[in-house]
Amino acid sequence: MVERETPTPAIEALRRPISHVWFGGDYNPEQWPEAVLLEDIDLMQQAAVNTATVGVFSWAALEPQPGEYDFGWLDAALDRLHSAGVKVILATPTASPPPWFSRLHPEALPVTPDGVRLIHGSRDTYNPAAPAYRDAARRITRVLAERYGDHPALAMWHLHNEYGTVSYGPVTDVAATWNTAFWSQVYSSWEDIHAPQRTQYIPNPAHLLDFKRFSSDMLLRCLRDQLEIVREVTPGVPTTTNFMLPTWHHYDEWDFARELDVVTIDHYPEDGPSGDAQVAFAADLARSFAGGRPWLLMEQATSLVYDYAGGRMLAKAPGRMRRNTYQYLARGSFGSLFFQWRAPRVGAEFFHSAMVPHVGPDSRIFREIRDLGAELAGVPELSAGPIEGRVVESRTAIVWDSTAWWATETRMLPSADVAYLPALRRVHEALWRSGVTADFVDPNGDPSQYDLVLVPSMIAVSDSQREAFDRFVANGGHLAVWYLSGSTDEHLRVREGSYSAAFAELAGVRVEEHAPLRDGQNLTLSEGTCASAWSEVLHVRGAEVVASYGADAPAVIAPGSAAITRNVRGSGVVHYFSTRVEGDDLQRHLARIVADAGIEAAVLPDGVEHVVRRTKTGALRIFINHTERAQTVRATGRNVLSNTDVDGDVAVAAGDVLIVRIETSPEGSRK
Ligand code: GLA
C-alpha cells in the first residue's frame, strides 16, 4: 500500500463537485456535429451522467499548427456540459502528438527493439525521453491549465492517457548495473552502451531489467512535468493519470501512485467467470495503489473489447456491466466511467462499444446504462468520501512487484511457465473465491499492517526487502512464499547456498535444485494436491512437511521429500510452496494458511462475492451473486437498493446485487 496522510485536501475537493457516484464516460465532442452534441446532453441527462472525460486525444484539434490553437469547440463543449450539470475531467492530450509534431521532430518518434523508427498514423507515437516531446507536452499542458483552470465544470486533471510507450532509440541509451562479466560485455565507453535492441543471441537479463526501470523513470518524468504545471497554475484541482490494468506494465505503479491525488484505472476484463475474478483483482490493486483510499474506475466498456489474440469482440451478457460495476464500487471506486460515451463512426476503434451505441438510445445497452445511472444516483454513500483510513479493511496482502514482473519477462529463466501476472491472479482468485479480501503491498513498503503476506513469484529480492520480511515474521506476521521468490538480488544476481535464498532460512528449508515440469505434466502430492509446472529438490531445515512429492515427481526428487512446508518462527509462521498449486487445491491450502493467521473468511455460497465498504457514516455490506441461480446470504440492516430492512437470510437473485447499510465496519484491524 502507498503510505499517505489522510485526508489530503485534493481528495476532500472531490466531494465538492460531485456528491454522487461519478457516472459517465470519455467524451469526444470534436468528432460530432452540433445536432449530435445537443442530443448528447439530452441523453446524458436521461442516463443521470454527471461526469465527462474530455480531450484525451485532442492535441491535433486543439493545436492544429505549432503554437496555433483552436479552443472554440472545447470552450463550447465545457460550457454546454456545465449548464447540464456535468463535471469535466479534462485531459491533457499528450498521448497523441499531432502529425506536425512528428514531421518536425522525427527524433521524438519511438523506436522498436528491432531498431525500426515508427511513423505517425496511430496514437502514442512519441518517445518519452525525447526533449522535443517533453517540451511540447509541457507547453500544451500549460496552455490548457491557464485557459480552463477556472472553468466551473473542471473537476479533475487527467494527465496524459495510459502512460506506456517504450522506445529503444538512441536518446534512451543509458547505463547501470548490468553484471557485464559475461560474454565479453564489459563496457569501456558510454558510446558502446545502447538500449537493449534486438541482438545476435540472448540478451543480458540485467540489461533488460534495467531498461524497464529506465523506461518507467522516463514516463514518470513526463508525468511529473505535467503535475508541476497544473499544480502551479491550478492548485487544489485534483490530478490523476489512468493506469491500464492489469495487462500493461511499462512503469512501476507504486512510483506513479505516490505522485497522484487520485488513482484511476482503465479495466477491460476477459470473458467468463475468470473475468469477474479479474475485476476484483484490478479493483484491489487500484485501491492498494491509492493507499487504501477511494479511487476511480476511469474506463470500462459496455460490452467486451477487441480480443487481439482471439481476433473477435464478444458481447457482455445482459446484467454483467452492472454486476462488474458494483464489484469496482464495493472495492473502493467512487465512480463508474466508461470508454466511451458515444460510439465513433470512424477511426481505429470504430466498432468499439459505448454508452450510446451506433444504433442509438433505442438499444439494450443504452437502457442498461440509463437504469444503472438512475440506480447509482440513489446510493450517494458510494461516492468519494471523505473517509478517514481505508475504504475496505483487509488483513491479507499480496506483494505486487514490478521488478518481479519485468524479471520474469526476460528470457532464460528455468521455465517459460513462470509468468508473473498469472501467478498473482491464481493466488488472488483463490482468496476471492474463499471470501477473503486482499490488498496488494509495495515490496518496498511496510507490510506490518497485515497479518498475512503472500509472495508469489518475487524472483528478485534486495537485502533491505529481505530484512523487512524478516522483521515482519519476527513481529508475528505470517508469510507464504512460492518457488523462485528470492532466488536473486535486485540486479538478478543469483543468491548462493539455496534457491529462494532470501526466504530459505525464514522458511526453514534449503532448495537444492530446480526441477521444472514438462508442459501439461501433473504431479499428485501426498495428501492429494495436484501440482504442475515446477518442482524442487527441497530439504527441510526445521520446517514441518505439509505435503510431499510422490513417485511421479522428476527423478532428481526423492519420493517422500517435502513439497509444501510450514515453519514456525517465534510468533510468526512461514509457508513455502516448491510447486505450482491451482484452483480448488490452492483454495484449500490458502484456507489453511488464512485460518493459521487467525483471519476469518466470510462464509458464503459458492460464486457470491462479499465486501464490506466503509462509508463516511458506517459501512455497506455488499453481496454480488455471480451465479445463474438465486443464493441465500445472511445480513441485517437497510437494503439501500430496495429501501427495506433485512434481517437474517436474504435471497439474492441470479446475477443480482444486495447492498445492506450497517452501522460500523465489522472487520477488525491488525493486532
Ligand atoms: C484504452 C484507452 C482508450 C481506448 C480503450 C479501448 O483504455 O484509454 O482510449 O483505446 O482502451 O478499449
Give a brief rundown of this model.
By secondary structure, the protein is α/β, with parallel strands linked by helices. Helices cover 29% and strands 20% of the residues. Helix 9 packs parallel to helix 10 (320-330) and helix 9 crosses helix 13 (420-433).
Give a quick set of tags describing it:
671 residues; alpha/beta; nine-stranded parallel beta sheet; seven-stranded mixed beta sheet; 16 helices; 26 strands; 29% helix; 20% strand; disordered N terminus; binds alpha-D-galactopyranose
What report would you give on this structure?
This protein is α/β, with parallel strands linked by helices. The protein has 16 helices and 26 strands. The strands form 5 sheets. It has a 9-stranded parallel β-sheet, with helices on one face. α14 (463-474) links the parallel β12 and β13. α9 packs across α13 (420-433) and α13 (420-433) packs across α16. The longest helix has 29 residues, at 205-233. The protein is globular and about 75 Å long. 50% of the residues are buried. Mean pLDDT is 92; it is low at 1-9 and 665-671. The chain binds alpha-D-galactopyranose. The site of alpha-D-galactopyranose has 11 residues, from loops.
